[in-house]
Amino acid sequence: MSALARHALAELLGTAFLVAAVVGSGIAATRLSPGEPGLQLLESSLATGAVLVALIIAFQPVSASFNPVVTLVERALGRIGGTDAAVLVAAQVAGGAAGAVVANLMFGLDAVALSARTRDGGGVLLGEAVATFGLVLVVFGALRSARAETVAYAVGGYIVAAYWFTSSTSFANPAVTLARTLSDSFAGIAPASVAAFVLAQLAGGAAAALAVRLLHPLPVPAPTPQEAP
């Protein structure tokens, strides 16, 4: 198997498990804590942060972005080529969709049930841009630190916090956003809300890429298997 195929498989599997955790924990939270949205958010945020730590540690030796924005910033910083970026983004989107379907089936729901949960408004979209901006800074800042292996804990901790301090509950990931349209549950997002969410995420990622260049002006080294975010 070629290196790119291995990277794509890692991105597909990792994103699938990430979305399964996001959607599955949302469904479980609504069943375990009906009528308590704050507790539901706490349960889902802890599950998502924990699974991110585990998945990044497990897949980091191959590839562990699980996020098209992170992959595109890698491309902008010259860490990967254009073809590689396109293949990895496609794998992330496919993996996210598979994860949502599996989560629905695990909880006895239809494999695909388009979400009716509208998420819109200027404040919510600003929250998505802020969440994505911060995530990219955390990922690439952690990778440039003296202990790059701590990126898993940095990302997991940031996402748990961003569930709470952003008005959008921090999707911060186009592949996850698209996948969450497939589940009409606590974690879902209506298809009509997706375009604005993704644009906000891309804007936040682009601003963060510029910030990373300013904060870390030295050339970014070519990725090694142990450095994949």
UniProtKB/TrEMBL annotation:
Subcellular location: Membrane
Keyword Membrane annotated: yes
SUPFAM superfamilies from the UniProt entry: Aquaporin-like
Regions annotated as coiled coil: none
Membrane topology: Multi-pass membrane protein
Domain of life: Bacteria
Alphabetical UniProt keywords: Membrane, Transmembrane, Transmembrane helix, Transport
InterPro entries for this protein: Aquaporin-like, Aquaporin_transptr, MIP
Transmembrane helix recorded as keyword: yes
A Pfam family recorded for this sequence: MIP
Spans through the membrane: 52-73, 85-109, 121-143, 150-166, 186-212
Main location, first listed in the record: membrane
Family recorded in the similarity comment: Belongs to the MIP/aquaporin (TC 1.A.8) family.
Protein name: MIP/aquaporin family protein
Organism ancestry: Bacteria, Bacillati, Actinomycetota, Actinomycetes, Propionibacteriales
